[in-house]
Amino acid sequence: MANQKGGVAKTTSVASLGAAFAEQGKRVLLVDLDAQACLTFSLGVDPDEVESSVNEVLLGRAGIADVRVSCDDGVDLVPSVIDLAGAEAQLLPRPGREYVLRTALEDVRSEYDVILLDCSPSLGVLTLNALTASQGLIIPMPCEMLSHRGVGQLLDTVTDVQKILNKDLVVLGILPTMFDGRSNHAQEVLADVGERYGLPVLSPPIPKTVRFAEAPAVGRSILSTSRTSKGATAYREVAAALTKRLAKL
Ligand code: ADP
Ligand code: MG
Which atom of ligand 1 is nearest to the CA of 42? Predict the structure, then answer.
């Protein structure tokens, strides 16, 4: 899940789709690659009390199996910590720095049906690690955004990654988020966005609802705090569609 813009619902989508895949009986691993540690926090893990994190994994001091924790939503989490920004700086001079996460995930890949990576709002070395480790990219995008220029830049990066680092990377599509069906503008953005970038648009769009703001405070995703809300239902439907799509990768 990547988009270098902040606040587009990357973290919310990783937590919610992760819970939806777990409801389907899948074995799910979520990886928090953001130094803000919002995913870690929202799954009920205090980033300040984490002993070892994705930081140690990226620096080669621990394996994923050493740092992962099980969460109430039925998913495993590789937590983040605030000093992840330091890991990014330490990775930079290393040869093969873009392959560190991919290599670390190899050890646990067979234990999971789905692994979701929550990227930070940047196109830096951690996001390159995520794109290098992934089979598929989902780009969450609010339907109300006037400027999509950042998406062009992200897609340029994807093209570079496909050429140099990970030729198998597939752009699964844009995930429209924070969709207000009553707004004409949102309807227009939704109709236009896939064509503009030549990308699939995942369906259904995720509706805008205050339920999402409430869920992280209790350390569980909207799928368990607000089981029948339209936001939870939409994420379940997107997860079901993705299950079919991923089977063809
Ligand atoms: P990112 O990870 O891209 O920075 P977040 O997932 O943290 O974005 O979401 C940013 C904010 O938007 C959060 O406060 C979150 O609760 C809120 N949010 C996410 N999805 C929705 C939605 N569908 N409706 C309303 N608010 C949402
Ligand atoms: Mg985030």
Answer: 7
- Distance (angstroms) between ligand 1 centre and the Cα of 240 equals 21
Q: Tens digit of pLDDT for each residue in 94-152?
A: 999 999 999 999 999 999 999 999 999 999 999 999 999 999 999 999 987 655 778 99
- Backbone Cα Rg of the chain: 17
* Cα dihedral 190→191→193→198 (10° resolution): 140
For residue 204, cis peptide bond before it (omega within 30 degrees of 0): yes
- Residue range 184-195: mean pLDDT, rounded: 87
CA of 181 to the centre of ligand 1 (A): 17
Closest CA to 13 of 152, 195, 137, 147: 137
Q: At what angle do helices 10-23 and 230-247 cross, to 10 degrees?
A: 70
3-state helix, strand, coil in the chain (%, to 5): 50, 15, 40
DSSP 215: G
Measured from the CA of 140, which atom of ligand 1 is nearest? 3
Q: Is 10-242 a CATH 3.40.50.300 domain?
A: yes
Pocket test for ligand 1, best of 38, 212, 236 (most atoms within 8 A of CB): 212
Nearest-angstrom CA–CA distance, 206 and 142: 9
User: How far, in Å, from the CA of 210 to the mean position of ligand 1?
Assistant: 10
The tokens of 239 are what? 């997860």
